[in-house]
Design goal:
Chain A has 223 residues and is an alpha/beta fold. In chain A, 21% of the residues lie in helices and 25% in strands. In chain A, the strands form 2 sheets. Chain A has a 9-stranded mixed β-sheet with strand order 2-1-3-4-11-10-9-6-7, sandwiched between helices. Chain A is globular and about 40 Å long. Chain B is an alpha+beta fold and 735 residues long. Classes of the chains: A alpha/beta (223), B alpha+beta (735).
Chain lengths: 223, 735
């Protein structure tokens, strides 16, 4: 299965993501620069983490208006899987591909630590290798991961099972509404999450809990 | 409309530039005329303490800087050390003390930015950062504000740039009330045959300006950093630069991309004294002149004078000499990354540094003399008398050892720094094997199956104050020991010497003594100094900081799967002390934090023992005979064991059978060259026999197990209580 990693100035976990995808799928993803208007045929497009455009103005706001985003939107409409991690999640929200907003952490501080995630929905294309209710480890590293959405949208997201990951009790690092750590679009092919599964995929990372997301999205697990 | 460059030179103006009358006379003798205003600014920038090392140079020359693995020693942007397979590690530490006190967020942020730039200027991709931070007393009204700003600034820049912060120090002492210390370290990886230097080569080649635009921020920053503070420091805020990590990240990628094309002949980042220092260094090192035309410098403010452009310390800027035929290719890379690219001058064969602005020649100076002929002082110095011996038998025992240990574990200087390092991205790049909280940070070498690098930053300022020579030795020994405790072989170090006003003989004596001690230890441990920085005049209203020569070292682990960690001990393991029993309580934290006294000499450092004990421990780790290892430093044996127990969240039961000497010295003595190791029970006899065979002193302490830390009948504390006390001080302080 082929994948693409989007590169924008200021993103800084693109190398981590390329490395993770290479190690898990056995071959390197293609990289796509922000000005490109077409994305090659791939099964998974990943927008990695970082500080695109310095997070100036608002996290993800400038990146969301770059030419490559139209190409991603087009691919998403065709059903191609899109994963946004950390800044990538913020960009997807700013681009209108996912509902909600990501605000400053309630501590007003950057936070980098390991948290626990509950896999709320294990029936998505990104979480098939987990079991519903399973609690997995994952690092977070962000300043603006405080997810917010209005009550009505939250209700419909819950009804549609769009909440994919929640911070397990007592580990919410940023004040997110309803402990939300990751959400998916209604169609089920665009996932955004604040935690960094790409930093927990091998023994050197101290665990492999993050592999399942990539293995699922790359169809490397039995359906 | 023309911007005026002509301002009359008066004695007041000369003094305001930090130049003494003697130094000004030297300028007159050198150029045979009165300097222009711009030229005065250039001299001030080049001849200040920060850039010229005029007080310290004579002593820095005595440090060992060579070794079989040293590829590049001091004098370039950073040191370069061979780590086998054609790889090298590029690293340096630098201070940003004065700016961080005036404007903590930006001061610390640009300190991190500056050191990262030093590393990637040489062609290395940064892979690890550390920060040694020292603040005033926790109850000083400014301390919380400074901690909050500095930590946020360090994180704000490093996190956005994308380098993991894997280690560092945070300490409090009232002697830093008026002058905090922010020492930033960075290390990068490069190929040994692809190192870039600042020496310009070839006449008539384009000098290219790259990166961010020039503004008025930081004008005179290096001169400011070379003076004492008084009550008017708030007025100096405009001399602090503003950092933009986004631009720096783009600059990194653009520079590394450009270096791949073969276009770069020489490169120098614009740090202290900006355009002036970078241009002079490139020319002087290559025995070439440089001509700059300021009309082509990208600026972000209107009507900037030549003086302001030459002295601006705007961040994220580079100067390069490029191959002319590669100009278009180079420009395309910088345009892609949204950065400025401007040809601002050329190399010449006349050894002059010429600056043109609006058709006028505003500076024409001999380039070699600007750097090489900078004043150099052999300042008078007074050796420290040291302190009389303080035997442990003269020091009171605590009434209650449980309380004493809890007090140390929860004290401002020993409490967990989690509040700080959780604000730093410690895992980005996916190679962090050991994050802050252990003996050293460890980062895997990307692309290699088993190699890793260990990093540690250390100094014990109270020792240096009590005895600069022994204190200097100890800083090196502790750094070497921390690296060894992971199983790594210490390769080389960088020094960041923070002291008060060198014009005072007793302060100069501290500097001289510390450098002599550092030199002796580096020689004995084959741990050369390959880069460094000196920060003097850390005084406010005549009160100097504690002498703080920070040593940051790098070590190599050939196989990280055999690395030791502080928290690796298992149920049933045996704990063994490697080294002699503790006996020395002078200048200890037991004395300071439990008894409230500052007295006695620091522990002596036996460098021969240091080396033998360390080599022995490293051998055990590499033979997979050790499950956990921790060096013994402040707080002695007992704090070391407590830290291991907390990291593992496991208890241990220790006995002090057949002890000689007082118990408090055995538990809290800060004698050097010591480690605590944890070994599987079935290997304990073997390890003991190995130590005996090698003539290494050791003591079998007891067994890992349960959830309490027990020492005979005198200590009995639940590990969870230790953890709670240890973790609660910092968040409570900052709340």
């Amino acid at each position: 299965m082929n994948s693409a990693v989007v590169q924008l100035p200021g993103l800084n976990r693109d190398r981590d993501m390329v490395d993770a995808l290479t190690k898990i799928s056995g071959h390197a993803p293609v990289t796509v620069w922000q000005t490109e208007t077409e994305i090659p045929d791939v099964d998974l497009i990943v927008i990695p983490g970082g500080f695109s455009y310095g997070d100036y103005l608002r996290c993800g706001a400038i990146a969301a208006r770059m030419p490559v985003m139209d190409a991603i939107r087009h691919k998403a409409e065709q059903g191609v899987k899109v994963l946004g991690v950390c800044n990538g999640f913020q960009i997807l929200v700013e681009a209108g591909l996912l509902p909600g907003a990501l605000m400053r952490n309630t501590s007003l501080r950057f936070v980098c630590k390991e948290v626990l995630l509950e896999v709320v929905n294990a029936d998505t294309a990104f979480t098939r290798s987990y079991i519903a209710g399973e609690v997995i480890r994952s690092p977070v590293a962000h300043h603006d991961g405080n997810y917010f959405v209005d009550d009505e949208t939250l209700k419909s997201m819950e009804d549609n099972r769009q909440i994919v990951f929640r911070y397990a009790a007592g580990t919410n690092p940023n004040g997110s509404l309803s402990d939300i750590a990751g959400v998916i679009n209604a169609k089920g092919n665009v996932l955004g999450m604040m935690p960094h599964p790409e930093n927990l995929i091998e023994a050197a990372h101290g665990g492999t809990d993050g592999r399942g997301i990539f293995a699922s999205a790359l169809d490397l697990v039995a359906a | 409309m023309n911007i005026p460059n002509s301002i009359a030179i008066t004695p007041e103006l000369v003094a305001a530039h930090g130049l003494s009358p003697d130094e000004y006379q030297r300028i007159l003798d050198l150029i045979g005329r009165e300097p222009s205003f711009t030229e005065l600014g250039i001299f001030s920038a080049m001849w200040n303490e920060h850039c010229s090392y005029k007080s310290s140079k004579r002593w820095l020359r005595t440090l060992p800087t060579k070794g079989p693995r040293v590829i590049q020693g001091p004098g370039e942007n950073a040191g370069v050390v061979d780590i086998d397979d054609g790889d090298c590690v590029v690293f340096k530490m630098e201070s940003h003390n004065h700016p961080s006190y005036i404007e903590p967020y930006q001061g610390a942020a640009t300190g991190v930015g500056g050191i990262l730039r030093d590393v990637f200027t040489m062609g290395a991709r940064p892979i690890a950062a550390m920060n040694a931070l020292r603040f005033g007393s926790p109850d000083h009204p400014k301390t919380k504000h400074l901690v909050s700003g500095v930590v946020a600034g360090v994180g704000g820049y490093g996190n956005s740039f994308g380098v993991p912060t894997v280690g560092g120090e945070v300490e409090f002492d009232e002697r830093y009330n008026g002058n905090i210390l922010v020492n930033a370290f960075a290390a990068g990886l490069a190929k040994s045959d692809a190192i870039f230097l600042s020496e310009a080569k070839g006449v008539g080649l384009p000098v290219v300006y790259l990166g961010a635009k020039t503004g008025r921020d930081g004008v005179g920053g290096a001169t400011m950093a070379s003076a004492e503070f008084d009550d008017s420091i708030e007025e100096k805020r405009p001399t602090v630069q503003v950092g933009d990590p986004f631009t720096e990240k783009c600059l990194l990628e653009a520079c590394l991309e450009l270096m791949q094309t073969g276009a770069v002949i020489a490169i120098q980042d614009m740090g202290a004294a900006g355009l002036t220092c970078s241009a002079v260094e490139m020319g002087a090192k290559g025995d070439l002149g440089i001509e700059l035309n300021l009309d082509h410098v990208p600026v972000r403010e209107e009507r900037m004078t030549a003086y302001e452009m030459m002295l601006s310390e705007s961040q994220e800027r580079m100067l390069m000499v490029l191959r002319p035929e590669k100009e278009d290719e180079a420009k395309a890379i910088f345009v892609k990354w949204g950065l400025d690219f401007a040809i601002v001058g050329k190399t010449t064969d006349d050894l002059r540094f010429r600056v043109l602005h609006q058709g006028d020649e505003v500076a024409n100076l001999p380039i070699k003399e600007l750097g090489d002929e900078a004043p150099e002082y052999d300042r008078p110095w007074l050796a420290s008398n040291g302190r009389p011996a303080l035997p442990a038998s003269d020091i009171a025992e605590p009434d209650n050892y449980n309380e004493a240990l809890l007090k140390l574990v929860g004290s401002p200087n020993q409490a967990s720094r989690r509040w700080v390092w959780e604000q730093y991205d410690t895992i980005i790049q996916g190679n962090s094997l050991q994050r802050p909280g252990g003996d050293a940070g460890v980062v895997r070498v990307d692309g290699h199956p088993s190699k890793a690098l260990a990093f540690s930053s250390d100094v014990t300022p109270r020792y240096v104050e009590a005895d600069p020579f022994e204190g200097g030795k100890q800083a090196v020994a502790e750094c070497w020991r921390n690296i060894t405790a992971t199983g790594a072989e210490p390769l080389a170090a960088t020094d960041n010497l923070n002291f008060g006003n060198p014009e005072k003989p007793e302060i100069m004596g501290q500097l001289v003594g510390a450098i002599q001690g550092i030199g002796e230890a580096c020689k004995a441990l084959d741990f050369p100094i390959v880069s460094g920085n000196v920060s003097l005049y850390n005084e406010t209203n005549g009160v100097a900081i504690l002498p703080t020569p920070t040593i940051a070292g790098v070590g190599l682990l050939p196989d990280w799967s055999k690395m030791a960690r502080i928290g690796g001990m298992n149920e049933g393991d045996e704990l063994i002390l490697i080294g002699f029993d503790g006996s020395h309580l002078g200048s200890s934290i037991f004395l300071r934090d439990v008894l409230g006294q500052t007295d006695g000499p620091p522990p002596a450092v036996d460098l021969e023992a240091e080396r033998r004990h360390g080599d022995f421990v490293r051998g055990l780790i590499r033979n997979d005979q050790v499950t956990a290892c921790h060096d013994i430093s402040s707080g002695g044996l007992m704090l070391a064991v407590a830290e291991m127990a907390m990291a593992a969240t496991k208890g241990a039961s220790l006995t002090l059978a057949e002890q000689r000497g007082p118990v408090h010295a055995l538990l809290f003595g800060e004698d050097q060259a010591r480690y605590v190791i944890s070994v599987p029970a079935d290997l304990a006899n073997f390890v003991g026999a190995s130590a005996e065979g090698a003539g290494i002193p050791f003591r079998r302490l007891g067994t890992v197990g349960g959830d309490r830390l027990l020492v005979d009948e005198i200590i009995d504390i639940a590990v969870v209580d230790l953890v709670n006390v240890n973790e609660s001080w910092f968040p409570a302080f900052m709340a």
